[in-house]
User: Fold these one by one.
Assistant:
Number 1:
Amino acid sequence: MPAAVALLAPSTLVLVLFVLYPLGKAVVLGQQRCNVQGRNCVSNGWDQYVDTFMSAEFQHALWVTVKFALITVPLGLVFGVGLAVLADKHLRGISVFRAIFSSTVATSVAVSSLMWLFLLQPEVGALSNVGWLSDLFPVVKSPGLLRDPGTALTSVAMSSVWASLGFTFILVTAGLQGIPAELYEAAAIDGATGTRRFRHVTLPMLGPTLLFVLIVLTTRAFQTYGEIDLLTSGGPKPHDSTMTLTYLTYGQESIIRGNAGLQAATAVLLFVVLLGLSLLQLRGIGKRVHYGGK
Amino acid sequence: MAVSEPGEATGVIDDATDKARSGGRPSSSAFSTPRGIRLAGRYALLGLVTFIVLFPVYTTIVASLKPGNRVLQNPLVPNAFTLDIFREAWTEGRLGRFILNSLVVAVVVTVCQVATSVMSGYAFAMLDFPGRGVLFMVFLATLLVPLEATLVVNRRTIDSLGWLNSYQGLAAPFLATAFGTFLLRQVFLGFPDELRDAARIDGAGHTRFLWHVALPVVRPTVGALALFSFLSSWNQYLWPNLITTESDMNTVQSGLRSLRYSTLDKPNLLMAGTVIAAVPIFAALLVFQRQLVRGLTAGAVKG
C-alpha cells in the first residue's frame, strides 16, 4: 500500500491538477461572467451554455470546423493509404521513398504552416510570383488563396493534409506489413485481380488501423489551431471563413478574446462535441471492423 | 534476322532463370515486358508523388538560400545563392535561444513523463491495492479530455503561481501522461510471474525489482514513449503562445510565430528560420526512426 501511494502520487497529482481540475473549473467558469482581466467572475446562469451554443459565432465556427474535417479527414485517409500501398512493394530504392513519404511527420505545425504560408500568400509568396500560374488562376495573385473567402479554408486544409501525410503513411504501412502474405497467396490462387485483392483482403485487414487513423485525424481536425493562427488568423474578414472552434476559443482575432467565461464555455462545448464524435465513431464503425481473429 | 534469333532466345532464357533465382522479381533488363512496363509505371508514379510531397520543402529551401532582391524572381528556380540569410535568421530570429528553451522544456517533460509512466504503470500492473480499478478508470478518462478544453484554466493556474514566462510554466501541465501509464501497464502485465517471484525470494523490494529487472526488459517501450513525449513537447504550439509574453522565453514554435510577424516583407528570412527550426527534429527522427514507428503504432495495435 505505501508503495502504491508513492508510485502513483506524482502521476495522479499532475493529472488531477492539470486535466481534471481545469475541466471541472472550466465547466463552472463557463456559466460565469468576468471582468476584463478575467477575474471577479460572477454567475451568469447555466443558460450561458445554451446561449453560447446557439450564438451565430459558435454555430459558424462549428460549421467551419465540420467543413474542415470533411475536407482533411477523407483526403488524409485516401492519400495516406494511397502512398502506403504505392510504397508497399519490394523494389530497389523503396526505402528512400518510404523515408520521404514519412518525412512530414518531422515538421511541427509551425514549420509546415510557414512553408505553406510562403507557398500560398500573395505578393511575397512563391506561387503568386510564378507568372503562368497567376495568369491561369488570378485568385493566386489577388486576393490570394488565403485571403479569398472561397479558397481560404481549402488552402489551410491542404497544408494540414500535407502535414499529417507522414503520420498516416507510417501507420498504414505498419498495418499493411501486418497482413499475412498467405492471404494474398490464397486470393491469387482463387484468381482475384489486384483491385479485388485490395478490396477484399487489404481493406478489411486494415480495418483497425484505418479506424484508429480516422479517429486521430478527426480529433486533430477539431483541434486545429496552429495552421489557422499562422495562415489566416481566422479570416478572411468579414466572413471569418477559417474561424474554427479552437481558434474561436484561443485566437487573438477571436471575438471572445479576453472573455474568460465565454472562452471556458466554448472549450467545454468543444470537449462535448469531441466526446460525442469519438463515441459515435467507435460505435458505428467498430462493429464493421475486422479485428483479424481476435 | 538469323543473327538476332539466338540472341532473343538466350534473352528469354536469361529472363526466366533470373526470375526463378530472384523468386519472381523482375530483373533490371525486363523493362520491355508487360511486367517491366508496370514496374516503370510504378517508379514514375513514385517519382511524381515524391515531387508533390517534397514541393513545399523545395520552395522553402530555395527561398532560404536566395538574397532578398532575388527571392521573388522565379521563386521555383534556384538561380542565386547565399548563406547570409541563414546567419541573419539565426541572430535576428534568436533561434539559438529558442532552440535551447525548447530543448530544456522537452527534456524535462520527457524525463518526467517516462518516470511517472513507469512508476504508475508498474503500480497498476504489479501491485494490489484498494481502489485500483477506479483509479485506473480515472486515468483512462483523462485521455478523453482534449488539451484545448483545459488550457483556459491551466493558464490561470500558471498565472496565479507566478509561472508565466518560465520553464516550469511551460513544462508543468505535461509532467505525467495517462497514455504512457497505459502503455507501460500493458508491458508490465505481460511480465512473467516467475521473474517477480524469483526476485522476491532473493529479497528484492519493489524499487530494486523495478530498477534492475523490470526496467531493462521494458526498455524498447520506454524508448518509444520517450521519443513520443519529446516530440509532442517540442511541437507544442498553443500552450507556449498562451503563457509566453517575453521574447526570451519563446520556444521554437512560438518563436517562429513572432518571426512570421517580424519578417512580413522578408520571406527568405522567414524560410531560413523555418529550415533552422526544422533541422534538429528532422535529424533526431533519422536516428530514431524505429522508436518513432513503435511509438506511433502503439496506439493502433494491441488496443
Number 2:
Amino acid sequence: MTHLTNIVKKELRELLTPGSVVSVLLMVLLFAFLGGIVGGEVDKVKTLSPMAVVDDANGEVDFPDGTHWSLYDNMASMYGNIPEGKTIDDYLFRLSSVTLPDGSIDRKDLASKMAEKGVTSAILVPDDFSERLAKKRQAHLEEFYLYEAEGMFGSAPSITASSMVGSLNTLLSGFLVGGVVGADAAFYLQPIRLNESGSAYIGTMVNGSFVRGVTPMEISSQVSSQTMMVPLVIMIIIMMVGSIVISSMGSEKENKTLETLLTLPIRRTVIVTGKIVAAAIVGLVYGLAYMVGMSFYMNALTKEIVSGVNLDDVGLGLDLADYALLMTSMFLAIVCALGICMIMGAFAKNYKSAQTMTMPLSILSMIPAFVIMFSGWYGASGLMQGILFAIPFSHPMIAMQALMYNDYVLVLSGIAYMAVFAAVAIAVTVRLYNSDILITGLGQTSMSSKLFGNRRKSGESR
Amino acid sequence: MTDALVLKDVRKSYGNREAVHGISLDVKEGEIFGLLGHNGAGKTTTLRMISTLLRITSGSISVYGHDVTTEPEKVREVISYLPEDAGAYKDLTGRAYLEFISKFYTTGEAQKEMVRRGIEIADLGDRIDSKVDTYSKGMMRRLLIARAIMPSPRLAIMDEVTSGLDVINAYEIREIIRTIARNGVTVIMSSHNMFEVEMLCDRVGMMDQGNLILLGTPDELKEKFGAKNLEEVFVKAVMKE
C-alpha cells in the first residue's frame, strides 16, 4: 500500500464517521420528505377543486327571444371528466343562503354550510342576475371564500373560482353571439385564434435552430427547473467540504497528531494530497447524496408546473461529454475549495478557531450561488461576470447552463482557470507545510513580527 | 562512539525575537540525553528543530550524518518524535492507529511484526481494540510511546514524556526508555522533572532563556556545583546566570 493510500484511508475513516454519514442520510430523507409534502400540495392543485354555488334558482336566464341559459348547467359542464365513482354533486354543491333582516346574506351561516361540505370557495348569484342578463345589461357574480391557513398552494381555490367566472363569461358570450349570428359564434368571439403550447403557429430560434411549438418562456422555465438546484448543491458541497477540512486541520493541531504526521518518513506533498483527495471523495459522495435529495424535492415542486418542453427536442439537452465536463468542473471546484481550506487551516490553532475560518469560504460560495440563481451568468453585468469568473466555485454553477447553450469556451476556460487555481493553492499549501507556520501559527513569523511588532520581549523563548 | 546527533551554534528566531541563542551539543549513539529547563527555556523549540518540524535560522543540526535542512526526509527516516501532550486519532482503535503508522515504515510481514511489537510495548491488553478517545492519559501515553518506538528509530526524541502521569505510569515509561536505550536506540528527551532526568539520563544539558547553560553527566554537574541533586544544580546555575 502506498503512503498516499494509507493517508487517504485514514482521512476517510475520520471523515466518514457514522455520525456524519447519518446526518447526510437524514438530510437526503428530509429533502425527500419535503418533496413528498410539496408533491402533495401540487397534487391538491391538480385535483378537481370542489366548490359551491348559491343560486337559489336565480341562475336560470330566460332571454326575450325564448332561449334559456342555466348557470348551474354551464358550471357543471366545466368540470369535464368526473372521475369514476363520482358525480358532479361531489364537486359542485348547490347551497341555499339565509337572508338577514337588512336584506344581505348571512355569511356566517353560509360559511358553516361550506365548511360542512368541505369547500372553500363559492359563487353567489345576486337576485338581479337573471333579470339584468335578460335585459342585456352586465350582471354580477360574487366570489366568496373561506380563508384557511393552507400550504404553499393555499390560494388555489380563489384561482379556481375566478377562472370559473371567466369561463362562464366566455360560455355566455358564445351563447349570446350564437343567438345573433348563428354558427359563427366561435369566429366572432375569437377572429384570430390564440396559439397554445405545441401550436404550429409558434416558433423560436434556439441555438441557431428553429424550433416549432415552443415559446422562449417555456424553454426558459424548463432550463431553470433543470439548472436551478446546481448552484445550491455546489454551494452546500463547498461549505461542507471546507468545514470538514478546516476542522480536520484544527483537530490535528489540537491533538498534536499533525506534529507526529509531519515527522513520519513521508513527503509533505503526500500528506497534503492525501488530505485533499480524501476530502474531495467525501465531498463528491455527500454532493451526490444532496443532489439525489434535492432532485426529489425539485421534481416534486416542478412536476406539471413547468412546461413540458423536452430540452433534447429543442437542442438544449446534455450528452455524456457534457456531463463529463460538468463533473470535471465540479471536481476542480471542490479541489480549489480544499486548497483554500488547507491554506486557512494551516493558520488554525485548534478545532474552535478552525470553525470560524470557514466564513470566507461560505461567503465566496454564496455570492456566485445566489447571483447565478437569480440573474444567471448571461444576465449578469460585465463587472459581475468578472467577479464570478474569479471565484472558482462559480464555474460548475455556470457550467450546466453554458453547456446547454453550447458555450464551450466559457466552460473550458473555467476548467483551465480552476486547474491553475488548484495547482497554485496546492503549491502554497505544500509550502506552508514545509514552513514553521503550521507548528507556530500566526504571530511567530517575521511577517507578523513586522506587522504587529514584538509582543514578547526579545530573548524570551519557549 | 558514533555521534547520533550534533548541534552546532543553532539559533532560532521568530521574526526579530530569538528563541534559541546558538546552542551546540552532541549526543552519542545509545545515550539517553536529557534537556532540562523551565517553561519557555527553548527545549521544545530545540527538539522541534531536530525533528524537522521547525527550520533553523542559523547553525546546523546533523542526525546520524544527515543535515536537517538539506536532507529532512533522510532525517525523518531515522528519528521518531513524541510531542508533549500528543494525541492519536480519536476515531481509531489503538491497534488501528499502530497499523496506520506502521504502514509508513514497512510492508507485508515486517509491518505486521512491527504492529505486534507496538502492541507488546503499549501493553494495553484488550483495550488495544478500544477507540483511542476512551483511553486514560496513561494509556494514551503508552500507546504513543509504542508508536514512537515500534519502528526501531535510531534517535527517539521525546518531549516531556512523563508529564502529567501518575507514579506507576511514569515509572513504567521510564523503564521502557531504559530498555530501548539498552537496545541501541539513542534518546533525547526534555523534562521539567530533575529527578527523572537524574535517574534516567547519561548526560544532561540545561537550558535557560534560549541558552544552553550547562552540559555534562549528572555526577559531573553535581560535583561542579557541590550540589546534592540536579535540581540544586539548576537553581545554582540559574542564579549564577
Number 3:
Amino acid sequence: MIKGLRVMRVLIGVMTVAVCLLLVWQAVDIYRTGNRPENFSAPGVRIEQVYSRQIVAERFGRIAPAVYAYLAAVAAGLVWQAAAKGREKKPRPAVIPPAAERPAKYRTQARLILAGAAVALVVLGIMNGGARDVLVKAVNICTECIGLG
Amino acid sequence: MDNVKTKKTIKDYLPTRRRLIQLYAALLHNANLKGYLSGQIFTGNTKYLCAPGLNCYSCPGAVGACPLGALQNALASSGNRAPAYVLGILMLWGLILGRTICGYLCPFGLVQELLHKIPSPKIKKSGLTRALTWVKYVILAVFAVAIPLWYVRQHIPMPGFCKYICPAGTFGGAIGLLANPANEQSLSMLNILFTRKFVIMAAVFALCVFLYRPFCRFLCPLGAIYGMFARVNVVGVKVEQSKCTGCGLCVGSCKMDVRRVGDHECIHCAECVDVCPTGAIALRAGKRPLREKKKDKAPGAGRYVAWALALAVLLGALVYFNGPDSPGGAAPAASQTVPEDDTPVGPEVGQRGPDFTAPLYGGGRFSLADTRGKVTVINFWATWCTPCVNELPHFEKLYQTYPEDVAVIAVHSDLVTDDVDAYLANFDYTIPFALDEEGVVAAYGGSTMLPQTIVLDRNGIVTYNKVGSVTYEVLESLVTPLLEE
C-alpha cells in the first residue's frame, strides 16, 4: 500500500505539470491567435478581440477532460492519503544545528521607538491625505494593475 | 517501525487550530461575499485600512486595502506627498505580528498550503532554496520600490509588482472579476499583460504542489518587509535559551528556510513547538504563551471565549458587508427618454449619450451639448491610473489631427488625490480636461474601472463605450467611419 501511495504521488505530480502546461499552452495560443496579422484590419486595430467568453470556453473546453481527470485523480489521491495516514513511516527530521541566537539587547526600547514612529507616520499620513490615497486606489480598479490591460 | 501509528481517531482528520485561523482570516479579508455575485468590488470606508495579508483590493470580496499595492501607489505618489500612512501601517503590522501574518492570516499563504496538500513528491529545502529566499528582497527593491519611484519622474503611477508579477492579483482580482458574467465586457481588454501574468500564476500554483509555500519563500515582497521585523515583533515563536540544547530538531523539521527559530524566514507556524524535546519553544505574545508543547490538560475556558468572540466578529462583518445597505459599486445609470426624440438616453451603444456639463481645469465649463455636430470622444481618466495617463497622448494626437470635426474631452474621476492642474502643467496637452463633479462616469455606465472611452457620433448617439486602454489606431478606426457619415 505504501509503495502504491508513492507511485500515485509521482503520477499526480506528472499530471500536475501536464495540466499546468496545457493551461499555459491554451492561454499563450489564444494570445498568439489574437495577434496574428490576419486579425488586424489596420495597424493596431483588431477584427476579433484576443480573449472572449466564446474563445475561452472553446479553448479550455478542449482540455476540460484532462482537467477533470486530474481533479478526480487528486480527489482519489487525497482520500487514499488520508486512509494511509499514520501507516507511513515519517522521515526523521534532519538535524540542522541552529544559527546562534544573537543577544536581544535593547529590544523593548527598539519596540517602543518603532511603535512611536509608526503611530507618528500614520497620523502624518492621515493629515497629508495619504490615507485617502489608499482608499481611492482600493475602491477603483486600475485595469493594468491586475493584469487586465 | 518508529513513528508509525495505526490507530486513528477522528481528531487526526480535523483541521488544526492554525488552519482554522487561516480560514477565518481569509474569510474576514474577503467578507464582501455579495461582490462575488455582483462582480463589483467593495467601495466602503474599511478600505482606508491596509489589511495585514496579501489580498488584492480589486478582488470582489476584499474589504480592506492590500498593503503591498498601497505601498507601491504611495511611492508612486511620493512626488506629491510622503508615503507616511502606508509605511506607518506596515510598521505597526510588522512590529505587532511580523511574519506571524504569513503563517496565520495571509489568504494567499492559505492557498499555497492547500495546494501543497495535493499528493505529489515534495521537494525538500536545501542550500539552493535557502539562496533563493534572497530573491524576494530583490523583487521588493526593484518591483515594489524602484520601479514606482523611477516612474514618478515621468508622472506615471506604476505599481511594478502588481503589474508584472503578483499572482494574488491575477487570481483574486483579474480572474475573480472576469469569472462573473457581469464583467464579460472586460474580456476585450485582455492581451499580453494578462497572458504573461496568467503564466506566472500557473507556474506559482504548480510549484506550490511540489514545494512548500514557494511564493512566500522566494517571491513575496510583503513577507520580505515583515521579515525585517523578526527581531522585534511581539507575537511569534520564541526560544527559551535556558532550556535549549541546540539539538537542531526545530530547524531540521521546519519546512521554511530558517537558520534558527524566529528568524526572518520563520512564519511562526509553531510546528516546531511539538518537535522540541525540551519544550524550549513556544508561540508567545510578548511574554504570554499562546501555544506551548502539548500538555495533558483540557483547554481552558479562555480559548472558548476567544473563539466565541472571533466568531461574533466574523458574523458581524458578514452581516455588515453583505447587508442591503452596504456600499457596493456604482449602479449603472437607468435609461431615460427625452420627449422630443424617440432615442432612449443612456450609456449603451445606439442610445443617446446623456448630456452633461463639467468644470474645466484652467477655468470655464464644458457642455456636451456644445459639441453636437462633431464626433465626440469622451475619456474617463485619473492621475493615479497608469493606463489612463499612458493613453492621454493618443487622445491629444486625435484632437490635433481632426481639430474641426472631432471634439475630445478628458474627464477626471471625482476621486482626486493629486493636484490635477499641477499634473497637467507637466505636459503640453491642448485637449480640454474636466472634473467629474456631477456623476458623468456613472451616467455613462462607468463604475470602478478606468480608463473608459466613449465615442458619440455627430448626433450624440453612443457608438462605442468600453473600459480599457486604447491606442491611437483604435481611436482613429472608431472615429473615421463616423466622419464620413
Number 4:
Amino acid sequence: MTKKRSIFTQEVIVGIVLVALYLIFRLISPDFGKYTTFLSMMDISYYYALMAIGVAFPLITGGVDLSIGTGMICYALAGGCLIRFYNCPTGLAILVSILFGVGIGLANGVLISLMGLPPFLATLCTCMITRGLGSVVTGSFAIPWPTAKQDNGWFHSIFKITTADNLKLPLGLLWIILLTLIMQFVLAHTRFGRYTISIGSNKEAAILSGINVKFYHVMVYMVSGLFAGLASIAYAAVIKTVQPGTGAGMELDAIGGAIVGGVSASGGYGTIYGTVIGAYVIIFLKQGLPYIGFNANMQQIITGFVLIGAVTIDIIKRKVIK
Amino acid sequence: MGPVIGSGSISFSFYQQKEDKRMKKKVLAVLMSTVMIGSLMAAPVFAAENLSDTTEGIAQFEGLTANEAYDFQIVVKSFQSTYWQAALQGMDMAKDELGVTYTAQGPASESDIADQVNMLNSAINGAPAGVGLAACDTSSVLESLQAAVDAGVPVVAFDTGVPEPPEGSIVCTVVTDNVAAGEVAAVNLYEAVKDKIGQGAPVRIGEINQDNYALNIQQRGLGFINKLIELAAADGFTVAMEGNEFYVNEAEGAVEGDADIILEVRVPAQTTVDLCSTEAGTILDKEDTIAVFGSNQTAAEGLLVANDNREVLGDTIVGVGFDAGTSIKAAVEDGTFLGAVTQSPLMMGYYCIYALTAAANGQELIDVPTDGYWYNAENMNDENIAPNLYD
Amino acid sequence: MGEIILTMKDIDKSFPGVHALDHVDFELRRGEVHALMGENGAGKSTLMKVLTGIYTKDSGTITYEGETVEFHNTHDAQAAGIVIVHQELNMIGDLTVAQNIFIGREFKKGLMIDDRKMIRESKKLFDELHIDIDPRAKMSDLTVGKQQMCEIAKAISHQAKIIIFDEPSAALTEKEIEDLFAIIRDLRKQNLGIIYISHRMDEIKVITDRVTVMRDGAYIGTLITSECTKEDIINMMVGRVIYENPKTHSMVPEDAPVVLKVEHLNAGKSVQDVSFELRKGEILGFSGLMGAGRTETARALFGADPKQSGDIYVNGEKVTINSPEDAVRHGIGYLSEDRKRFGVVVQKTITENSTLATLEKYMAGMFINKAAEKAVAEKYIAELDTKTPGADQLVVNLSGGNQQKIVIAKWLVRNCDILIFDEPTRGIDVGAKNEIYKLMNLLASEGKSIIMISSEMTEILRMSDRIVVMCEGKKTGEIPIEEATQEAIMDKATRDIK
C-alpha cells in the first residue's frame, strides 16, 4: 500500500527508539537487564498493549475511547465476583468479562454512531459509568482472582508458563505478537479495517459511497471494548487483587502508545504494529525510568514530551506530503 | 520470637450477649464471634508501652444499651480495599447487638476528597443520631464538622483521627496507632535480619510507601524508619537514608555517607499496584537488599507482584507486609512474607458503633485506641488473630 | 431517445430559512443526455440529492422504471442503478485509487479483500475510459482533475441505469473534457439516462439532448437543445429579476490612488507569481474555474495561509502580513466563502458578531461595555438594512443574505478599507443577492476598495470595474469591464489548461 514511501516510517523510527531505550536503560542500570526485570515488565505490558490494540481502531476513525481503563477494571471485577461469590468456573467468568467489554463497546458505538454524541463525551460518560459500576457489582470491595496455585487459577498460564526446570516464559508476549498480526491484517485487508480508515479519512465520502457507516462505526467501538475485556483478564492474572475505583488514567497510556506508534491524532492513518511498538515505548519508560533513578513524576513529564515529539512528527509528515 | 508484644486482659460480657443473629446468616460470622471473645480475652496489644491503655477506652462501653433504635450515618474513605469490608462487618455485629441501624457510604477512591466532603455534609443534613467518619483529608472536613456541632450531631472519628477538630464536634476517636504499627513491623523485620548486618559490606533495607501525604501512611512509614534506626543504634550499627525526600528528611538519627544499613524508601507517582510493583522491583533487584517492608495493602501487593518473577522474598530477602487481603495472607502463609501487621478494622468498626450509641445516649466518652497485630504463618490461624485477617 | 425512465413530479423541499425546491418537475428518458441548468442556488444539486436519497423530500413523487420509489440513502439509489458523480470530491484520501473505486463493494477472497483483483478491474476500467492513472496510487497524491476522473470511473463501474454528472468539467482540462464527452456518448449509446449539470453553455450545446432550467428552486421549463439558442436558456435562467444595472464602464475615477499592490505573490502550487493592483473605490473581480487559485490568493494575501514570497503594499507602503491579525491591522477584511465556518459565529447574537474582530475597542477595564457594543451593532443594522427584530437576535436565525451583512458589519466596525468578498452571494436568495450587490456598490462609492472572487460569470460581469482571471494558480489575464465578455474571460480562464 505504501510502496513509494521512505522506509523511515514512524513505525520504524519508534521501533528504533524502543530498542535504543532498552539498551540505554540496560547500560545505566545493570539490574534493568535482568531476566526477571524483563519478565515483570512483560507482565505489566500485556494489558496496556491489549488496550492499545483496541483503542487504535477508534483513534483511526478520528475518535477516541476513554472508557477502556476503568472498563478493564470493571470487567475484571465482574469476572472475579462470579468466581468468588458464585463458584463460577474460571473459563465462564473470563468469557463474561470479555463479553462485558464488548457490551460496553456496543453502548459506546450506539451513543457515538447512532445518537451522534462526540466520542470524547460518550466514552467519558461510559468511563464514569464503568468506574461506578465496578463498585456496584462488587459491593465496593476489592476482588481477588484465583492465584496460580489454586485449581481454578489456570488462566495465569495463558500469560506465563513455568518449565520443568523452573524457567519462566512470558507466553503473553506471543499472544500480543499474534493479536498484533491478526488485527493488522484486519485493518489492512478486510472491509471492516478499510472502512475504519475511511471513516477517519473522510466520513462524508464513506457515507456517499454507500457504506453502512453507522454499522461499522459501532463495530469499531465494539473492537475497542473487546480488547479492554481481554486486557481485564491480563490484569487479573498479573495484579490478582482488583480494586474498584482504579483504572482511570490507564487508557491514556494506551492512547499515548498508539499515537507514539504513528496513529494519526486526527484519524485516517495508523498501523497496529506501530501502535503496539508505541505502547511498549510507554511501558519501557514507565518501567525503566525508576531503574535509572527518575521518580515516577519525572517519568510522566518525560512521557508527555515523547508524545509531543510523536505528534509533531505526524504533523510535519502531513505537511511535507501536502 | 513471639508474635505478640505486650499483653493485657479485658473481659467483654456485653459482647457475648447478642452474638446470635448473624450466626444464622453466615458461617463466617459464627467463627468470628467465637474467635472474637477469645481474642478480646487474650487482648494482644502490640507495643503496649507506646499506646494508651486500651482497657479504659473499652471499659466505658460496659453494659451499654441503646436508649432508642438510633440510625447512624457512616462515611468511609472509600471501598477500594477489603479492609473496609472488615470494618463494616464489625459495624454489623455492633448494630445487631445494640439494636441500632446505620448507612455507610464512601467515595470511589481515597483521593476523591471533595466527593467525601459532599457525602459528609448530606449525612449531617439528614440529622442522624450520629455520624461515623473516616476522613480522606483531615483538614477538608473541618467546616462540615462545625456544621455537625451546630446541628447537634455527634461525630465519631474512626480509622483516621482529625487533629484539632472544632470544639465539641468529635466526641470520640477510634483509631489504630499507626506509629506503633510501623514500629512493630520494624521490630520483627530487624530481628529476622540482624545477623546479616555489620558483616563487612553495607546491607540494604527497602520500604515501599504508597504515598507521602496521607497522615496514616506517613506515621506508619516513619514509625518503621525511626524504630529501625533506634534498634540498629542499640546494636552499634549506623543507618543511611535513600529515596523519597519526605521520608529521608523526616527520619531521625540517620547518618550521611557510609553506614552499615542503607534504608531506601520508594514512593510511586500514583497509588496503584503496578506502579508500586515497579518501585519494589528496583529494590528487589539490588544485590545488597536483605529486607523490604510494604506499608499498606497496595504497597504490599505491589511487592508481591514484583516478587512473582524474581522469587527472592522468603529466600534471600525478608519481606514484611501490612494489612491483609487474599494475596498477602497467602504470602504470609507460604513464607514469602516473614509476616505482616494487621490493624483491626473489624474492631474499629465495632467500637465506632458503640461509641456512636453511647454518644447518642448522652454519655461522655474518652478515645478508643484499637489493637494491631503482628501475624505470621504460625499464629495467623490463632483465634485472636484470624478474625482481623479479611480477604 | 427511448422511453421515460425517470419522472420527478411536484418535488418540494425546504431548509430552515430557504425554500430550496418549489414544486419542481423533471423527466429523463433512456439514451438521452439531459442538461439541468440554473444559476448557483437554483436548486439543481438539491434536486439531485433528493433523487439519490441524500435529502428526504417534503412532498412529491419519484417514478423510476415505472414504479414509485423513495431512496433513503445513496446505497439504495446505487443498488437501483442511479449513481452520482459529485461536484465536491468524495474520495478517501488515505486509501488508494482502486480501494476508492470499489469501496462499499470490495471483491473478497475468503475473509480477505482481494486487492489484486480490484487493481486489475480498475485498470480495465481506466483503459476503457482512456485514463492514465495508477490504481495503486494514494488518492490524496493525485491532482484534483485526476481525482475527478476516478470519481467518474467509480460511478461508471456501478451497473448504472442513470448517471448524474454534477459539474464534472469544472476541474478538467480540455483533453479530459473531450475524453469525458466520448465516454458520455458511449454511455448514451448503451441506452443509459444521463443528467448533466453544468454552467458551461458551450458544453450544453455540444453534448446534451434536452435542457431543463431551474431558477430560485423552481422549475422554469424544458427545451430541446438543438431547437434553442444560448440566449433562450440564459433568459430562462436569469428570468425577470431586476438586478443592479450591469456595469458597462468602470466607476473608478481616473485619479483614484492605488490602495493595494501585490507583487509576485507565491504560495504553494495554487498561487504562482500573482501580481495585481487595487484602486480606491474599485471593485476588482477575480474570475476563474474551480481550483484556479483565487481563494488561495486571497488567503495568502490575508495571511491565513503561509506564502513563500511576494511583496504587499498598502497605500504605497510595504507591509508584512504573516497572519490575519496583521492583515486586519492594515485595514484588510476577508469575507469567507463559507460563512458558517469562518465568517460568523451562528450561535451568538448580532451584537457579539459585529464586534468580534474589534472587541478591544469595547472594553471597560476587564469587562465588555455592552451598551457601546450594542449601539454600534444597531448602527450597522440600520446602515446595511439588515432584516432582524433586534441586535440581540442570534445570527443562526437570520437568512443567508442577512448573515452576510453581519459579516460585512464586522469588518466595517473594524474600519477596514479593503474588503475581500469570497463568493459573496453563494447560497443567498435572489432578492437578497441584489441587496448585497447594492451594498457593494455603495461601499465602493464611499471609497472602500473591494476584491470580489466569484464563480458566477454574470456576477463578475455585473459588478466588476476590472477583472483578473486566474488559471491553475497563475494570473492569465486582466480585462477592463469595457472589454469583458463571457468568452473573453473563459478563454483566459482555460488558457493554461493543456
